[in-house]
Amino acid sequence: MDSISSNLAEIRRRIERAALDAGRDPATVRLVAVSKTKPAEMIREACEAGQTLFGESYMQEFLEKREDPVLEGCSPEWHFIGHLQSNKIRSLIGRVSLIHGIDKLSTARELSRQALKHALTADYLLEVNTSREETKYGMRPEEVETAAEELFALPSVRLRGLMTIAAPDPEAAELEFRELRELLLRLRKLAPRPEELTELSMGMSSDFEAAVREGATLVRVGTAIFGWR
Ligand SMILES: *Cc1c(COP(=O)(O)O)cnc(C)c1O
Fold first, then answer.
1. The model's pTM
2. pLDDT digit string, tens, across residues 190-216
């Protein structure tokens, strides 16, 4: 079995090549190592290989792992990438640097309420259902611009960009990545502070190179680093 450190080196190399192919600076793409269901020892190993940014999806698991003594001295930066119910949001305030999966106005409102209460600013991404599959979370692309005015007015939160989980078919995925990038550009035109809207979280183990070519700034890779779940 390949080691976590050699997997990471290989993923970084592929990200770099995809970025250069598209005429992008590879430094504009950050790798989110998705460690859900994997033990803290594996996060430690990735940390020792220079990986600092990790993504978790399950609240209880995340809250336990971040306190794990195995991670002492490693101080990972955490992103929460899972689906979020409003009643769980409070647990994330001040514990993650970015929340990827806000998929409804009501959840964004709750995030704003909780951040305000804790006197903190919370950064988040809006999840968009670009594949329009019924089983997927996310706002429909056409809903995003309608919601924009209210989203930009919410206190104590900063919308930093968009996130999607693309369809499994590579050709469909490529179109979805492009659609997400175009949606971000339109959203910037509506934004009071467009310079804050910089992030496109797209691409996973099976499709991150296409996502990078289409403008991803955050790729969320789990299996290709840590193995099958
Ligand atoms: C699990 C997960 C990933 C990582 O998927 P892999 O195919 O293992 O790379 C990325 N994004 C989200 C939202 C996830 O839940």
1. 0.97
2. 999 999 999 999 999 999 999 999 999
Number of structural domains, the chain?
1
Q: Which domain holds residue 176?
A: 4-226
- For residue 34, report the distance from its CA to the centre of ligand 1, in Å: 6
> What are the start-end ranges of the H helices in the chain?
4-21, 40-48, 59-65, 105-117, 141-153, 170-190, 208-213, 223-226
Are the CB atoms for 125 and 163 separated by under 8 Å?
Answer: yes
Yes or no: say if 144 and 183 are a contact pair by the CB < 8 Å rule.
yes
Cα separation, 5 vs 117, whole angstroms: 40
pLDDT in tens, 86-106: 999 999 999 999 999 999 999
Distance (angstroms) between ligand 1 centre and the Cα of 31 equals 12
- C-beta separation of 196 from 159 below 8 A: yes
For residue 39, give the CATH number of its domain.
3.20.20.10
| Torsion sign (Cα): 78, 126, 20, 15 | positive
To test the pocket of ligand 1, the residue of 204, 209, 219, 225 to mutate (highest count of ligand atoms within 8 Å of its CB) is 204
Ligand 1 center from residue 205 Cα (angstroms): 7
Looking at the CA of residue 220, tell me the nearest atom of ligand 1: 10
Q: Which atom of ligand 1 is closest in space to residue 36's alpha carbon?
A: 1
- Given the CA of residue 226, which atom of ligand 1 is nearest to it? 8
- The answer for residues whose C-beta is within 8 angstroms of residue 34's C-beta and 6 or more apart is 54, 55, 56, 57, 81, 204, 220, 221, 222, 225, 226
Distance 84 CA to ligand 1 centre (A): 15
